[in-house]
Structure formats: C-alpha cells, structure tokens
Amino acid sequence: MDSVRSPEWPVAPLGGVAANSAAARYGMSPGTGPIVGRAGPPPTAPPPYRPPAAAGSASPPAGKPAAPPIPVKILVAGGFGVGKTTTVGAISEIAPLTTEAEMTTAGIGVDDPGARSTKTTTTVAMDFGCVTIDRSLKLYLFGTPGQTRFGFMWDDLARGALGALVVVDSARLDDCFPAIDFFERAGLPFVVGVNAFDGRLALELGEIRWALAIGDHVPLVQFDARDRLSVRDALLVVLDRALDRATRDRRA
Q: Would you call 138 exposed, middle or buried from its count of C-beta atoms within 10 A (0-12, 13-18, 19+)?
C-alpha cells in the first residue's frame, strides 16, 4: 500500500501569523494562486449594527453598553376558538410558536368553536410570541389552550406572569367565564378584550360588562385579533394595568 507523507510545515515563530499562511506553507508568493475564503481580517471592521433610535429615546453614554430590555410575561387566555392564536400571531415580531392540530370527529360535542366559525384546527399546548415595546421593555406572550381538558396547564403558564388579556367572543360569553374566574382567584391583573369578529359585536360593551359581572376596575376593550395595531393597543392596556398594580403593591 502506498503511503502519503505529510509535508514539512515551516516552523512559525511564536506570535507570528504570516508563517501559518498559505503562501508560507506552499511557497506561493503573496497575491498569487487561488485563495479560498478570507485570508485575513479586513483592514477596517464594519461598524456594528445599531437599530434606529426612537424619537425621544435617550442613548446610552458613550462606551457603556445599553441595558437589555426587561422581560415581561403576559398571558393571552380565553375560551375555545375566540382568537387567542390569531392575537399572538398578529403582534409577534418573531414567527410565533403554535401547537395547532387538526380537529377530528373525536372532538364533536367536546370542542365547539361556534356556529359562525370556520375553525379546523385547535391549540393542543400553547402559543408563544414576543414583541419589543421599546429599548427597556419586551413582552413575551403565552397563549393558553381554551379547552377545559387542558386546564391543568394554566397554573404553570401563569407562573411569573404580570398580567393577562382575556379574549372574548361577544356571541359566546359563557366560554370566557372559566378564564375570568381563574385570574380573579389567582389575583392576577387582567383585561377583557372583546374580539370584534367581522368588525362588529353581538352586544354593546356595557351589556358585556354586566353579563360578565366584572367590576369597573377591570378594563374592557374592543379589539380586532387580526389587526396588529389593534392588538398592540389592547396589550398596552394590560401592561398599564400590571404596572399600576405593581406600583400600588410597592407603596403598600
């Protein structure tokens, strides 16, 4: 069997980089022969990427790195088929994590999305997305499953959350009662967001508040789960409610 003898590599002086180059190893003169990849760093490195500063935002002092945004966990909860997955997907700045599965005949009589719905899939675990509010705040959104049989997950998903958006279908108010009861028992600040399917509501907001038996301290807003700006406004109400609660707790 023929043997192959390794070439005698020239000895590179300590701290020397030139002796370890292709020209020194193979006897090539600089600038000749094919060069694969980049032989060395560019003479001047390009400046690091800096996102455009928002109007009125203060830049960190020169030489001091900007502090990372504070993470805030928000839940998006509600009954089955009210638009939780759509809400998370509309606002998330990343491709949202969804756990959608096709609905089968086994779910007939168990998972009822309503007569108006054309829903063919269902969340079997959770949804996840995130959105940056500004340089100092970032929201992490966790969508809960709406079916009763997945209720055991809610305690784990609610751990560490600062607030919740309870999504409601005005034509199926009874589906949101378990979510409202859960957050009232947990003492977690929440906002009721009435999803305007097809741009209209089955009831007026005052009638919905009365039917849900929620106090005036619970914000009730109308929004469109498909519209990014509408979802943003609803989440800002949740954030404001959570910050107000945190401020009162700190003063107490």
A: middle
